[in-house]
Amino acid sequence: MKRRKFIQNAALTGLGLTVGAALTACADGKKNKEKAAATKFTSDVKPSTPMVIATWNVPNATAKAWEVLQAGKSALDAVEQGVMVEEADEKNQSVGKGGLPDRDGNVTLDACIMNKDGDYGAVVCIENIKHPISVARKVMEDTPHVLLAGNGAKQFAIESGFTPENLLTEASKKAWEDWKVKSEYKPIINVENHDTIGMLAIDKNGDISGACTTSGLSYKMQGRVGDSAIIGSGLFVDNEVGGATATGMGEEVLKTVGSFLIVELMRQGKSPQEACEEAVKRVIQKSPNYKDFQVGYIAVNKKGETGAYCIHEWFNYTTNQDGENVNHKSDFYAKGN
Ligand code: SD4
């Protein structure tokens, strides 16, 4: 089956869519003044307080990240420990342990992390490791590489002290077996109350980091990798500007390099909200079949302003600032479209 056809079928059959530069010191002349006026975000702008934002209704994850920030730790520690809550939650069938498997029953996970210096680490298609986000961080910090895949990623994890375990829970096994029996589904767009987790945090120094972790499209082809762990697509952070992360049909996010696009739009002066809207519209322009899949983005800028936008209703996200978790409903494109 041709790739495009498979993706289209995946959506139609309901295969799980579980699914600045710093210009502060510019003192010399008109040219720099003009540049400063055109550049909204400068590296010395600090949000009033640390904050966390994450895709979906994940109060335990954002509360954990907040707790880490409150302890004076970095945004990097906060996003890692925050998303680990979802990776460990077996009831979340889109992330970590308990994630829904591929067509052949293998739970394969993708995760990536990005720090304030623009360093990135990722693992894709890793099996038997409950916390791929922590392996991604180790790839970033302990290897000369940025991305490890499949068995190599698993071997690296084991050598780094991670214990391999079975990630296919009884509930996910049963869901897979049911899927194998019926083979016809209607499109299911975000019926779950949460999904892939992408998280962005700003710490007390005003530094931004991000993390994204998923079991990907459920019942996917073996070896399929989505957007979540691919830099610029599922996640992007530029500490001088802001960060963005994605959820939904990874193929569409990958084709438009959505998170990088949002950060670059913010660099050019758009608000996080405007930038998310533009990135969703880019997906829609390129994919006439947008009604069959969901894509959602969240973003934060250096000032701590946030934005979110998606194609279809029901995408939501959680923020935590001052220790208070708030779940927000995202605005969406497909209002009667
Ligand atoms: C992927 N973007 O693998 C992920 C899945 C997801 O909501 O986010 N589902 O394509």
From TrEMBL:
Q: What positions are marked as the site Cleavage?
A: D195, T196
Report whether Signal shows up as a keyword of the record: yes
In this protein, the active site sits at T196
Instruction: List each coiled-coil range.
Output: none
Q: State the UniProt keywords alphabetically.
A: Signal
Please give one Gene Ontology molecular function term for this protein: hydrolase activity, acting on carbon-nitrogen (but not peptide) bonds, in linear amides
Q: Write down the superkingdom of origin.
A: Bacteria
Q: Which residues bind substrate?
A: R224, V225, G226, D227, T247, G248, M249, G250
- The leader peptide range reads 1-27
**An example Gene Ontology CC term for this record:** cytoplasm
User: Is Aminoacyl-tRNA synthetase tagged as a keyword?
Assistant: no
The protein's name in its UniProt record: N4-(Beta-N-acetylglucosaminyl)-L-asparaginase
Q: Which organism is it from?
A: Kordia periserrulae
